[in-house]
């Protein structure tokens, strides 16, 4: 799962929480039910040499899951996102909020209320 | 009657009285320093030479200890014999068990669990080799002991003829036992000919080209580069 020390608030979009390659791969996985490796490389435009290691890391971190698909005498991986984008966003937000409340207590909670009222 | 405490006392007495004591200390210190360099060094040539130099320093230190001994006890020889027996056993047994450690480390499974033909193909080339696959998208193949390891990434990337070329390449390494690091080090330590990594890869490719086809080898290499 997302590690707080990897969060970089100065980055844009999903790269705040993932590396640029991880973010591109996750976007493919969130928009497709199941994807094989060649589909991921085609849709992201990232070479296999970079995609393969990143896929291993995403699976290990629990963001993606994969299963072995046997077709005759050939085998391939089929990847899917472990959770929907909304659920992942939920997990990340909770982690960030927990961390802020742990550090700043009341001030953080008051700011959340102010933010909610503004919205 | 053998008494280890008497032997150690004799040892301490002979060595502390010896004029060679500073030299012995320097040699042992040098050996430890060289062993540390061996463990830390990144270049394989540097590692091998620091290892040989450390071993030579230890042999000199043991020789000086033996010459300093005035008593009849032969603890030096006994310790040295035990050291030689233990290190020889490790050197000879390690290649036989190293691939088993790799199977555990990579959580490798027999390839027959996902496809049969690679094991049948390898059986034709080598009776003793076993093919394993492991869970990783990174295309990789290697051989150790009597096992060939293929990642799932390699299985999904290559077509049948390319995979055969890769298997033949790895079987060549198994047949020549030259992927076992300790054996390669020994060939240098015993001043026998040792080929470079590039030469070995080329020879394995030539064999794979003869067994499968040159095109398959080139196509597999192109996919990996």
Describe the protein in words.
The complex is a heterodimer of chains A (119) and B (225). Chain A is of the alpha+beta class and 119 residues long. Chain A has two domains: 82 residues, Winged helix-like DNA-binding domain superfamily/Winged helix DNA-binding domain (Arc Repressor Mutant, subunit A, Orthogonal Bundle); 37 residues. In chain A, 56% of the residues lie in helices and 15% in strands. A three-stranded antiparallel sheet of chain A has the order 1-3-2. In chain A, a hairpin with a 2-residue loop joins strand 2 and strand 3. The mean pLDDT of chain A is 88. Chain B has 225 residues and is an alpha+beta fold. Chain B has two domains: 70 residues; 124 residues, 2-Layer Sandwich (Zincin-like). Chain B is 70% helix and 7% strand. Chain B has a four-stranded mixed sheet. In chain B, strand 3 and strand 4 form a beta hairpin. Chain B starts with a helix and ends with a helix. The model of chain B has no long low-confidence stretch (mean pLDDT 83). The interface between A and B is medium-sized, with 16 and 13 residues.
Distance between the termini of chain A: 29 Å
Using only C-alpha atoms, the radius of gyration of chain B works out to 24 Å
Write out the strand line-up for the largest beta sheet of chain A, numbering strands in chain order. Answer: 1-3-2
Which term fits the overall shape of chain A?
Answer: elongated
Characterize the biggest β-sheet of chain B: 4 strands, mixed
Indicate the CATH topology of the largest domain in chain B. Zincin-like
Encode the helix/strand succession of chain B as letters: HHHHEHEEEHHHHH
The overall average pLDDT of chain A, rounded, is 88
State the name of the first-level CATH class of the largest domain in chain B: Alpha Beta
Number of helices of chain B: 10
CATH architecture of the largest domain in chain A: Orthogonal Bundle
Would you tell me which CATH topology of the largest domain in chain A applies?
Arc Repressor Mutant, subunit A
Number of domains of chain A: 2
* Percent of residues in beta strands of chain A: 15-25%
Which oligomeric form is depicted? heterodimer
């Amino acid at each position: 799962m997302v590690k707080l020390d990897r969060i970089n608030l100065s980055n844009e979009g999903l790269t705040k929480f993932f590396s640029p390659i991880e973010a591109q791969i996750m976007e493919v996985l969130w928009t497709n039910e199941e994807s094989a490796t060649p589909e991921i490389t085609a849709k992201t435009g990232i070479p296999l040499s970079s995609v393969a290691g990143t896929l291993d890391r995403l699976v290990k971190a629990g963001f993606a899951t994969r299963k072995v698909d046997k077709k005759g005498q050939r085998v391939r991986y089929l990847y899917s996102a472990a959770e929907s984008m909304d659920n992942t966003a939920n997990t990340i937000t909770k982690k960030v909020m927990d961390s802020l409340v742990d550090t700043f207590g009341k001030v953080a909670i008051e700011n959340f209320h102010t933010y909610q009222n503004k919205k | 009657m053998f008494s280890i405490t008497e032997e150690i006392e004799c040892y301490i007495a002979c060595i502390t009285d010896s004029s060679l004591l500073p030299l012995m200390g320097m040699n042992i210190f040098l050996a430890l320093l060289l062993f540390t360099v061996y463990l830390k060094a990144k270049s394989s040539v540097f590692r091998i030479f620091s290892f040989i130099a450390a071993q030579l320093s230890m042999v000199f230190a043991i020789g000086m200890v033996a010459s300093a001994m005035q008593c009849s006890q032969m603890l030096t020889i006994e310790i040295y014999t035990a050291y030689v027996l233990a290190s020889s056993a490790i050197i000879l047994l390690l290649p036989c068990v190293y691939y088993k450690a790799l199977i555990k480390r990579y959580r490798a499974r027999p390839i027959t669990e996902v496809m049969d033909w690679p094991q049948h193909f390898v059986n034709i080339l080598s009776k003793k080799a076993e093919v394993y696959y492991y869970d990783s998208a990174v295309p990789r193949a290697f051989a150790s002991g009597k096992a060939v390891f293929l990642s799932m990434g390699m299985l999904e990337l290559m077509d049948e003829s390319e995979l055969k070329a890769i298997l033949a390449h790895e079987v060549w390494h198994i047949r020549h036992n030259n992927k076992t690091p300790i054996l390669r080090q020994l060939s240098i330590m015993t001043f026998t000919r040792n080929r470079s990594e590039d030469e070995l890869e080329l020879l394995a490719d030539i064999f794979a080209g003869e067994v499968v086809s040159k095109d398959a080898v080139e196509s597999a290499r192109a996919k990996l580069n």
